[in-house]
Amino acid sequence: ATGPRQSNSNFYEIRTYDIKPSKMKEFLEMVNKYLHYRTAHSELVGFWYTELGAMNKVFHIWKYDDFAHRTAVRRALANDKDWQGKFMSVALPMIEKQHNEVAYLVPWCQLGKPPKEGGMYEWVTFQMKPGGPALWGEAFRAAINAHVNTGYTTLIGVFHTEYGLLNTVHVLWWNESPDHRAAGRHSAHEDARVVAAVRDSVRFLESQQNALLIPLQCSPLK
Question: How far apart are CA 167 and CA 161, in angstroms?
């Protein structure tokens, strides 16, 4: 896992905000209205809010060339009067908690796109045993590919944390609908190839959790 990572300095910052329940609607409206001030400074991959698996949370992913690029962007944002005055000063009181992680795409995955707009995204977080991809990478890759090969779901990206809780892998999937996902998973659980790959991978698994995400109007991934 380290070779491709060292030769490519691009990384992704994954931000999770807990929003006050009474302010969720207002916060999402503000994001849709003013996020163009933020995206003028760096590339947004996607912006979602949670529908199932967690409540009153938003997820957004930003791409950076390297850490110097992120530093320059953060400095520019601090001096952007439109961003600070129209969005940040109003939005910050609506946020209860912020969390961020720095992650790389795993070497065997390119960032994908859904076949069409609409549908739903699923964000699955796997906490793997200490040791990194050298220990569990191949088994994890086989389990992901086994699900991809069933054809019921679309893989968007697999992210491995560099800062944050280590040995964490986030997998972003796209499905046409929650019912389409449910039917596909039911079929996958009866597929001997999927079952075998998952059994091999869970030997290295500590825990996992997932959330159903809905993209905002302003999100590049819709």
Answer: 7
Tens-place pLDDT, residues 159-199: 999 999 999 999 999 999 999 999 999 998 899 999 999 99
**DSSP, res 21:** G
- pTM for the model: 0.93
> Could you tell me the domains of the chain?
11-102 (3.30.70.100), 105-215 (3.30.70.100)
Phi-psi region of 131 (alpha: psi -120 to 50; beta: other; left: phi over 0): left
